[in-house]
């Protein structure tokens, strides 16, 4: 029995592994942190039926029938009119930037046609770049608006079809899911590969014992960082070409905007990712730790960016937390340019956010690298 299995030897090995695992603080934190993150995200933040979706109202007359209908739409919980007195030009700019999901247009003769019983019509323009985000709100439109007019006129026996609601799903009228998913996959693929590969940049040197040779070189921390991250920009370029070609030729995703704007956004995003990976490599001591930290960052970024679940469906605190991830801003940029034909001015806010990420992560990586030299 002792030749094949000794409980004393087995116990000694178990004690040794337990002590080693306890000393590996990153692994221990991952074992506790990942389940907690998953519970918080899936339990509180994820909602596939978004409510309080921002909307703009274009109604020149603002009569009592219009106010009754708008109030009824807000009571459903799906609509939140952030611009109740917008002009047509203002509403167009807001939906193109993504500030609102809906634009409700009520014609100037709406009230007169209601009083005459002359089948009034309203237009609902919906941002359909994410088909699942607005589906619940669209399904309630006709019934809620009609009931509101019936209560206002006092005619509860009116024909339910008296009110004509025209729904215009913009940017993705067929509701093709691939138009939303494939551009987002570009960001997800780049994030996973770029961060993981560069996160092992310095840890590989430490494990191979070549870190001393690197430190003995007459190179500044900035030069070392650039030497580590620039080659991976070429790897990212190859991935971008492959994904964009597949998006166009296999999935037929429209590219309405300028290719130069798309490439500019991708370049800034990839630059932020490789610098983030380099920052992780200055924290991790082994390649396993670098991989663990990468996945620890990847999970909440994937869940809170709006890739898997509608961003508008998350509570306010989850949306605020999602703003700290570069993927959130890149998804807004790439979907706006590819599906909406947005120009640089329209996506300037997302570009600025990604640029800020680049500067902040670069500063943190340089400061952290200097500390690791001590």
Automatic annotation (TrEMBL):
Keywords: Cell membrane, Membrane, Transmembrane, Transmembrane helix, Transport
Bilayer disposition of the protein: Multi-pass membrane protein
ABC transmembrane type-2 domain sequence ranges: 147-372
InterPro entries found in the cross-reference section: ABC-2_transporter_component, ABC2_TM, ABC2_TM_bact-type, ABC_2_transport
One cellular-component annotation, GO: ATP-binding cassette (ABC) transporter complex
TM regions (residue ranges): 26-46, 181-202, 229-251, 257-281, 293-311, 347-367
Gene3D superfamilies, A to Z: abc type-2 transporter like domain
Main subcellular localisation: membrane
Pfam name, any one: ABC2_membrane_3
Superkingdom in the source lineage: Bacteria
MF terms (GO), sorted A to Z: ABC-type transporter activity
Keyword DNA repair: no
Record localization: Cell inner membrane; Cell membrane
Protein family: Belongs to the ABC-2 integral membrane protein family.
Protein name: Transport permease protein
Organism: Salipiger thiooxidans
């Amino acid at each position: 029995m002792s030749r094949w299995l000794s409980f004393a030897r087995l116990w000694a090995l178990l004690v040794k592994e337990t002590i080693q695992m306890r000393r590996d603080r990153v692994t221990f934190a991952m074992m506790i942190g990942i389940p907690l993150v998953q519970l918080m995200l899936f339990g509180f933040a994820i909602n596939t039926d978004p409510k309080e979706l921002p909307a703009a109202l274009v109604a020149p007359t603002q009569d009592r029938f219009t106010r009754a209908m708008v109030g009824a739409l807000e009571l459903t919980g799906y609509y939140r009119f952030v611009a109740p007195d917008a002009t047509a030009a203002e509403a167009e700019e807001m939906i193109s930037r993504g500030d609102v999901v809906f634009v409700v247009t009520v014609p100037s003769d709406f009230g007169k046609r209601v009083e005459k019983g002359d089948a009034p019509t309203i237009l609902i323009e919906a941002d359909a770049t994410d088909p699942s985000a607005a589906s619940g709100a669209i399904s309630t439109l006709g019934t809620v608006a009609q009931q509101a007019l019936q209560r206002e006129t006092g005619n509860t026996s009116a024909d339910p079809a008296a009110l004509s609601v025209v729904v215009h799903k913009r940017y993705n009228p067929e509701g093709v899911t691939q138009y939303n998913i494939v551009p987002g996959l570009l960001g997800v693929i780049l994030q996973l590969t770029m961060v993981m590969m560069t996160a092992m940049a310095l840890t590989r040197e430490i494990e191979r014992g070549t870190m001393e040779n690197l430190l003995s070189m007459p190179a500044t921390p900035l030069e070392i960082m650039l030497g580590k991250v620039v080659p991976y920009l070429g790897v990212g370029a190859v991935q971008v070409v492959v994904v964009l070609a597949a998006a166009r030729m296999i999935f037929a995703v429209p590219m309405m905007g300028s290719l130069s704007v798309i490439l500019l956004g991708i370049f800034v995003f990839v630059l932020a990712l490789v610098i983030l990976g380099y920052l992780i490599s200055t924290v991790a001591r082994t390649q396993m730790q670098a991989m663990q930290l990468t996945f620890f960052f990847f999970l909440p970024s994937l869940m809170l960016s709006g890739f898997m679940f509608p961003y508008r469906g998350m509570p306010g605190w989850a949306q605020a937390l999602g703003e700290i991830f570069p993927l959130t801003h890149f998804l807004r940029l790439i979907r706006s340019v590819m599906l909406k034909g947005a120009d640089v001015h329209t996506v300037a806010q997302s570009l600025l956010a990604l640029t800020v990420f680049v500067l902040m992560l670069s500063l943190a990586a340089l400061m952290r690298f200097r500390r690791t030299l001590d």
